[in-house]
Amino acid sequence: MPVTINGVELTDADMEQELPLHADAPNPMRAATTALVLRRVLRDEAARQGLDLASEDDAIGILLERHAPAPEADEAACRRYYQANPQRFIVGELIEADHILFQVTPGVNLDMLRAHAGAVLADLLADPSGFAEVARRQSNCPSATVGGNLGQLGRGDTVPEFEKAVFALPAGGLLPQVLETRHGLHIVRVTRRIEGRLLPFEQVHESIASALAAASRDTAWRQYARLLVDRADVRGIDLGGAEDDRVFGSPS
Questions:
Q1: CA 122 to CA 124: how far, in whole Å?
Q2: Stated pTM of the model
Q3: Which InterPro entries does this one have (predicted)?
């Protein structure tokens, strides 16, 4: 069934141009279709209000500025964010970590792999001295050749779920549970920590204000887009699901 917005059908050419922009989405086809619907309803509203569509992007920008203004973050809001998220403003923090990776490959029995990783971890919790040797024999990471050693890591060097776990460990700490990330199952230990320093608020105030303003603007734009989509005659796709709430923002 074709997708139409206010009587205008999305074309294959539209989709071919938009689809590569959403290659990393869980459902690229739906994400591309949703983005095209969003752009069309914004364009139609800009035209309805008599804005010059010679530059479609400029017209949509003016429309959003008029109808979805977002307040700037004041100093109090910036200070609250700074105090609630100190780890974001620490520089120079480093750890040295080792890991054993059990890679999840196609066809692997995940329950059995989890059980095996858990058994290996239990042995290492009882006697951590064998970590490097176990890594050499069992890890699916290239670091196995050096006993699982990953070297020095800073924040942002690894995937978020790995970073969160390892930066919470003390030096000499072995994570007491198997860590699951997009790369597989990990047994992780931190061998050394280099503590960073917290940047003063005055040094990061401007960047915090910019980030909070951008987040506020994004929320306002998504809510306005949701309102326009609800008013539009959209056929061929139901935009009421949770997946679309992540695009437009949850309706209030």
A1: 5
A2: 0.59
A3: PPIase_dom_sf, PPIase_PpiC, PPIase_PpiC_CS, PrsA_foldase
